[in-house]
Automatic annotation (TrEMBL):
Source organism of this protein record: Methylocaldum szegediense
Record's subcellular location: Cell membrane
One Pfam assignment: Virul_fac_BrkB
UniProt-listed InterPro entries: Virul_fac_BrkB
Keyword flag Translocase: no
Transmembrane intervals: 53-77
UniProt name for this protein: Membrane protein
């Protein structure tokens, strides 16, 4: 149940789309770590009862704050584990790209070509993730290029909610 609870957090509270597989992996890592940390922390608290009664109320507050901080760290650790759905980022193969205007135009042209090619052949539209993987570029770079193309009316989002695009003139 704890794995499912962690997976739920990683799917619905993230600022990005997280697959079930990645969320369950992150949930497993987070819940196992949380359970082990809880056992160790319980042993530590039981061992700290030998302190004087004067410090016990202060100690409880301090221990609570430590446990709260540890719980957040474990939650973030599971989130990092769920990030394996983007291995090219996790392995350090991509980083933030500063692109010149010429490169932005070339990326836009290549993306337009890919979208048009699939449309002409009657295949399913390219998604942002597929385009990023095909071109070996970060998804944010593709999103930025598609935003410019979409503002110019050259591409239109299909409305399926998966970030897929078709040529703009085919719709109008």
């Amino acid at each position: 149940m704890i794995i499912v609870a962690f997976a739920f957090v990683y799917i619905y509270i993230q600022n990005t789309r997280v697959t079930w597989r990645a969320a369950l992996f992150g949930g497993a890592v987070g819940s196992v770590t949380w359970k082990r940390a809880g056992l160790l922390f319980a042993k530590f608290v039981v061992g700290s009862t030998s302190y004087h009664a004067i410090f016990s109320s202060l100690l409880i507050v301090i221990l609570f704050m430590i446990w709260l901080d540890l719980s957040w760290l474990i939650l973030f650790l599971g989130g990092q584990a769920a990030f394996f759905q983007h291995p090219h980022y996790a392995l350090g193969k991509t980083r933030f790209l500063q692109l010149s205007n010429r490169l932005k135009e070339r990326i836009g042209l290549v993306v337009m070509y890919l979208i048009g090619e699939r449309f002409v052949h009657g295949q399913k539209p390219w998604t942002i993730d597929e385009s990023a993987e095909r071109l070996s570029l970060p998804g944010e770079t593709i999103k930025d290029g598609l935003a410019v193309l979409q503002a110019g009316g050259l591409v239109v989002e299909t409305g399926k909610g998966n970030g897929s695009f078709i040529p703009g003139n085919a719709v109008t």
